[in-house]
Amino acid sequence: MPKIVTKVEYEIVRLLMVINIWWLGIKLYKNPLTAFKVVKQLIADFQEMIGNKKLVRAFKIDGKYAWDMFNPAWPSPGFNTFFRSHLQEIKPTSPDQLGLRRLLIAITKRCPLSCEHCSEGATLYNRDVLSCDEFIHRIDKYVQQGVGQLIYSGGEPLSRFEDLLTFLDRFNTKCDQWIYTSGFGLTLEKARELKKAGLNGAAISLDNHIEQNHNTFRGSSKSFYWVHEAVKNLQEIGVLVALNVCPTKSYIESGGVEELIELAKKWNVPIVNLLEPRAVGNYQDKEVELEIHHKERLKKLSNQFNFSQDFLVYPTVLYPAGYRSAKPCGGGISYLFLDYDGTLYPCPFCKVKMPKVPKKTALCEA
Description:
Elements: E1 3-5, H1 7-29, H2 32-49, E2 58-61, E3 64-66, H3 77-90, E4 102-106, H4 132-144, E5 149-153, H5 161-170, E6 176-181, H6 188-197, E7 201-205, H7 211-218, H8 223-236, E8 240-245, H9 249-253, H10 256-266, E9 271-274, H11 292-307, E10 316-318, E11 335-338, E12 344-345
Parallel strand pairs: 4-5, 4-11, 5-6, 6-7, 7-8, 8-9, 9-10
Antiparallel strand pairs: 1-2, 2-3, 11-12
Helix pairs in contact: 1-2, 1-3, 5-6, 6-8
């Protein structure tokens, strides 16, 4: 189970992480003062993004500290690789250094569910195109270039379980590795296999706190059951768990998001990640995108749970889209999406094919 870290321990960990990043900068730039200036800029950019507030908690699990699902836990090889690339993004040591930190990989379009909002609705259930070796050949190139976090998605990545284990094992000592999953069929035995192979975290999709409503949304009478089972099984063996939530307009208006956060607290889930529905896939040409007042409500919730001492025992509530005014999406700059057929995109929602990695130009404003 994750332990909430606050106060003195939290401050010490933050300081040690900053020192760690500074040391990475010293080795990268061969100059302590240059390293200090770049790290100072990195921290300033982050503070600007979160509105110059201060996060009130971190989480400790399996001997490592984490504060969200987008930055690798510390200390770890993935943390070092990730932040070395982050420094390169701010001040590259050569024109060829892009600072790419994260690679999302759709390893399959197979899935046991039929979700209302599936962004891959047009290609879901297509046969897998790339073999395990062909995927590894592509991923290797990005890991060699400094990618520090690999995220395996689909479809449902558990549908290609043996290959998933192979990927995790290969990059175990190099990268922070996550799966984006429905949790369907994730037994304790499978959780142990994933952890042994090198899984660091899992973001499990839950779109309604009411079991029947979630099952209807996901097109399966067993979906909610497997979400809870996956959470319990992964936490038992020391894998960091987050809940990915894609709230509809009506769910936000009814107070459902607040109820789901309460459920996450009950389940001891440390992170809730709020995703905006997009008019892609099964939602193509539908009026599903949130209006300003919905976004403001989600941003208010995120601020409430992340920056108030009154909610220390609650999960951290992430709302990435809420930071777009301060920092544009990193699609095409700090992360890329590799589809199941080997096609490269800025992100899973921006289907603009990329023939090559861009140079310092954001292609995604999602």
